Amino acid sequence: MTIFDLKPSRAAGVAKLAAFLPAMGRAYSDGRNTDLGPDQPGFVSRLSPYLRHRLITEQEVIEALLTRHSLGSANSFVSEVFWRTYWKGWLNNHPIVWLQYEEDVRLLNARKADDSAFRESVAAAEAGNTGIRCFDAWARELVQTGYLHNHARMWFASLWVFTLKLPWQAGADFFLRHLLDGDCAANTLSWRWVAGLQTRGKQYIADPENIRRFTQGRFAPTEAFAPTGFPVAETLAPPLSALPVPALPIALDPQKPTLLLLHEEDLAWESWQSLLPSNLAIVGAVALASPRVATQNPSAPVRDFVVGALHDSLGRWQHSGRQAWGVVAQAALPETLAISGAAQIVTPVAPIGPTATALDGLAAAGVPLRRLQRPWDALSWPFATKGFFPFREKIPKILRELGLPV
Ligand SMILES: Cc1cc2nc3c(=O)[nH]c(=O)nc-3n(C[C@H](O)[C@H](O)[C@H](O)COP(=O)(O)OP(=O)(O)OC[C@H]3O[C@@H](n4cnc5c(N)ncnc54)[C@H](O)[C@@H]3O)c2cc1C
Question: What's the number of domains the chain is made of?
Fold first, then answer.
């Protein structure tokens, strides 16, 4: 088994979390910027595919951390976990940014069909055929492993935008199709951050000496990198103005037979189900076939991870002695609801992205869908309106309100 044999199961995520626990303090803060390469364990956790699908939750990661470290001594790791929460909250508070990105990717795909020079430039970058040795190695590493170290993602995105002068949206789409942790918020907003659109006036420019230092000499670039940035346009497609009108939420009636809907955004139903009324009559669980697989054309390893994670979640439900109705596509859900005999569906809130769009579609079609939000998100997202640094100051307050010992 290599370090990249990431099994799409909660058990694998829990085991990985336990194994990384001792390294979350000083070792992480000292080493996290160094990328030793794909065949070395390195200093980071590689928990991201599990957190991305909530096979394990942010809350259980921080709870586990606090059994071994103080908030202060593991401050760096805690901050990174909250970067994820911050990006998700920020994008949910600014949904137009996601919808505009989707429009831009559609436009770029159409451009690829018409403009062979553009199509070939993007294909060469994705295949690792640009002649920039480190960039080419990271492109191949991403495709082969479904993962890149955070610093490599930053260098790669910067070279994509400023040296190769390709649209950031095409790079973000490449990442989203290949990353096992591919996440609408963390990915889109990180690419925007590199391009200087997220923190105004601040672009991330890859520097050869920085790459040499933090890859411990694996790469010592001599190619001509763009020494400075240039203004990047906010959008490619015409700016959107209107947002779709959200369907009105329905109230959960504890007396009615209820179907639990699992989806790829939140698969740790074991902790989420504590939000349900204890007398709720649950007739079984069904998993929503991945709307991301249906719409974003991900790589085979990403598809396998998502599908495996859905089956793992439903399998755990079944092993707890309860009825499971399988993994079904959005279009087949009303029929499953009818067959199950349930009168309503309850499901975790999905952050903005293909799953949320699918849930909105079901609600708009009259499916009685009730979405319940985890306290972690409910307490954090309202603070994700400005930059990360004011958000970070709220972390102790958020953790205290969740009842964590800080
Ligand atoms: C251009 C670009 C694209 C990115 N796309 C994604 C993406 O699609 N999905 C994704 O989860 N992360 C993304 N990131 C953030 C970050 O690179 C990954 O979360 C991190 O590398 C995952 O590896 P790890 O689990 O070993 O992280 P660790 O360093 O061990 O961190 C622990 C956890 O904290 C969270 N985290 C760490 N760093 C960040 C960060 N900078 N932003 C948000 N969350 C973070 C992750 O959930 C991670 O699993 C992107 C960063 C860049 C620069």
Answer: 3
The pLDDT tens digits of the residues spanning 351-396 come to 999 999 999 999 999 999 999 999 999 999 999 999 999 999 999 9
Q: What is the pLDDT of residues 143-172, one digit of tens each?
A: 999 999 999 999 999 999 999 999 999 999
The verdict on the CB of residue 32 being under 6 Å from ligand 1 is yes
> Angle, nearest 10°, between helix axes 150-158 and 133-145?
130
Supply the CATH number for residue 153's domain: 1.10.579.10
Give the chain's mean pLDDT: 96
Nearest ligand 1 atom, CA 47: 25
Give residue 150 CA to ligand 1 midpoint distance, Å.
6
Pocket of ligand 1, candidates 17, 84, 177, 296: which has the most ligand atoms within 8 Å of its Cβ, to mutate?
A: 84
- Quote the domain boundaries for residue 193: 98-214
Residue 171 token pair? 């790079």
Q: Ligand 1: does its nearest atom lie under 6 Å from the Cβ of 302?
A: no
The response to whether residue 44 sits with its C-beta less than 6 Å from ligand 1 reads: yes
CATH number of domain containing 387:
1.25.40
Same domain, 58 and 115: no
Q: Domain check: are 262 and 367 in the same one?
A: yes
Q: What is the CATH classification number for the domain harbouring 305?
A: 3.40.50.620
Q: Using a cut of 0.85, tell me whether the model's pTM lies above it.
A: yes
Q: Is 154 in the pocket of ligand 1 (CB under 6 A)?
A: yes
Residue nearest to atom 39 of ligand 1 (CA): 80
Helix ranges restricted to H, 201-352: 208-214, 269-272, 291-296, 300-319, 333-340
- Residues 73 and 102 placed together within one structural domain of the fold: no
Task: Assess whether 105 and 194 both reside in one domain.
Answer: yes
Q: Is 54 within 8 Å of 21 (Cβ atoms)?
A: no
pLDDT band at 2 (very low <50, low <70, confident <90, very high): very low
- DSSP secondary structure string for all residues of 351-404: PTTHHHHHHHHHHHTT--EEEE--HHHHHHGGGTTS-HHHHHTTHHHHHHHTT-
Mapped onto helix, strand or coil, the DSSP state of residue 347 is strand
Choice from 45, 48, 176 to test ligand 1 binding pocket (greatest atom count within 8 A of CB): 48
